[in-house]
Amino acid sequence: MRLTSINVGPICPMQVGNQTVDSAIDKRPVSGAVRVTRNGLDGDEQADHRFHGGPDQAVYLYTVEDYAWWSEQLGRELSPGLFGENLTIEGLPGDLFVGDRLLIGGLVLEVTGPRLPCSKFAAVMQDEGFGRTFIAAERPGAYCRVLNEGRVSVGDRVSLVTGSDVAVRDLFRLNYVGKPAEKDLERVLSVPLAERLRDKFAGRLKKLVAAAG
Q1: According to the per-residue pLDDT averaged within each range, which of 44-48, 50-54, 107-111 is highest?
Q2: For the chain, what is the mean pLDDT?
Q3: Residue environment code for 141-169, b if the CB has 16+ CB neighbours within 10 A, otherwise e
Q4: What is the pLDDT of residues 157-172, one digit of tens each?
Q5: CA 136 from chain center: how many Å?
Q6: Residue 176 belongs to what H/E stretch?
Q7: What span, in angstroms and rounded, lies between the C-alpha atoms of 181 and 175?
Q8: Looking at the DSSP assignment, which residues form a beta bridge with residue 37?
Q9: Does domain 2-164 sit in CATH 2.40.240.10?
Q10: For residue 33, what are the contacts with CB-CB under 8 A and spacing of at least 6?
Q11: CA dihedral for 66, 68, 73, 74, sign (positive or negative)
């Protein structure tokens, strides 16, 4: 596995429907060594901290292979960073698991969950329905927390140490299930999820238990 692109972006105004909003989804490749801390990559920003960034979503990963798939589906070449990922990696398994650890030199990342599409992502893709398309494709990429800070450069080798048995793709699917099973929610809450996802699934479990009363 190899790191093929490092992508960062500042907060900028963008058009989403009839509104102008601030966003840092427009990530662009950078050269040279980049420091990765527990809060993310140097030079990278997030506009809405309710949904983006923070220690449990400090780094977003996407694969070269998934970009190739999307290029074929959409009939056009897609550039690294278009999906808002920080690290574009070649050879990474298509489905990671929560708790998987990626080692890039001294940097250690831990997978915490999938990326969920939003209206800003659809605006970047110039397709109001792209969120639904992204959900159906089940190629969400993965968010990570930083367990050990370090510097990374394009071309760095990436090693993987397996974590739990809860797949990122299963979490992605579960997020869109109207009536999830109590056992499925309990299972995903047993692994080191990103806090936003944990709160969401814990809230759904609480409602299920209360309804069963």
Answers
A1: 107-111
A2: 95
A3: bbbbbbeeebebebebebebeebbebbbb
A4: 999 999 899 999 999 9
A5: 16
A6: none
A7: 12
A8: 40
A9: no
A10: 151, 152, 153
A11: positive
**Angle 117-107-57 from CA coordinates, rounded to 5°:** 25
Structure tokens at 99: 């708790």
Burial class (CB in 10 A: 0-12, 13-18, 19+), 194: buried
CA angle 49-55-57, nearest 5°? 70
Residue 141 has phi, psi (to 5 degrees) of: 70, -175
**2 contact partners, CB below 8 Å, separation of at least 6:** 89, 90, 91, 155, 156, 157, 158
Q: Is the pTM of this model over 0.90?
A: yes
Q: Which two tokens stand for residue 73?
A: 């589906």
Please state the domain extents for the chain: 2-164
Nearest to 11 by CA among 39, 37, 49: 49
- Over residues 114-138, mean pLDDT: 95
| Phi, psi (degrees; rounded to nearest 5) at 2 | -145, 140
**153, two tokens:** 């450069």
The pLDDT score that the predictor gives to residue 30 is 97
Identity at 208, one-letter amino acid code: L
